[in-house]
Amino acid sequence: MAKKKVLISWSSGKDCAWALHLLRRRPELEVAGLFTTVNENYDRVFMHDTRRELLARQAAAAGLPLQTIGLPDVCPNEQYEAALGRFVAASLAAGIGAVAFGDIFLTDLRAYRERQLAGTGMEALFPLWGLDTAALAEEMLAAGVSALITSVDLKKLPADFAGRLWSRELIAAFPPSCDPCGENGEIHTVVVGGPMFQRSIPVRTGEIVVRDGFAYADVLPDDDVPVIPG
């Protein structure tokens, strides 16, 4: 039987990266690529603020093609849905049968994604769904996932969390109201190492800026650091 081809909605963060790792363990599936919505005004991933260059290095480290969907900084939902609809239709015509997401427990977000794909012939997959986030965080860290915090919601955490390594120590410093994986939007990350990559991605942290209630850390590829095979 032919394997079902899957695209992963790639935010650049740890959860979608772990979804990739889990999907590759399923013999009935073939992960065919990654896709990301990119802010055209800044050439970065929405919310995560990851540079396009770093996205490309993640895809290369994962050994997968990357497709990007460009959208304006201020994007009406209708425009987003139309762009995604065109992408899904083109992907279906190219033989893709499913789209996977890294969501864990936000039921409204899952329902929205399922509505977007309803009637398209494309299946929605949620490989992390329902997992305990404390146990999931420990599993990812124990497996060697390396991720930096690129975005912090200042209503939930102070700005000095931006740019730090997502780690057991950092999670221990979260207030009780914060989810260990940041599933409620407390943090967003960029993954730079782990079992889903063929090699780690050397990076350095640049400027940290505060705007619109968030602190953003600029994470850049560091070509001065030798690449260590993963």
- What fraction, in percent, of the residue positions are helical? 25-40%
Largest sheet: 6 strands, mixed
How many E strands?
10
Number of helices, counting only DSSP H or I runs of 4 residues or more:
6
Low-confidence stretches: 225-230
Terminus-to-terminus distance = 32 Å
In what range is the share of β-strand residues?
25-35%
Q: Give the helices and strands as they follow along the chain.
A: EHEEHEHEHEHEHEEE
Walk me through the structure:
The chain is α/β, with parallel strands linked by helices and 230 residues long. The protein is built from six helices and ten strands, in the order E-H-E-E-H-E-H-E-H-E-H-E-H-E-E-E. It has helices spanning 14-23, 52-62, 77-93, 107-117, 133-142, 168-172; strands spanning 4-9, 29-39, 44-45, 66-71, 98-100, 123-125, 146-153, 187-193, 203-211, 214-221. Strands 1, 2, 3, 4, 5 and 6 form a six-stranded mixed beta sheet that branches. A four-stranded antiparallel beta sheet has the order 8-7-10-9, with helices on one face. The longest helix has 17 residues, at 77-93. It is globular and about 45 Å long. 33% of the residues are buried. Mean pLDDT is 95; it is low at 225-230.
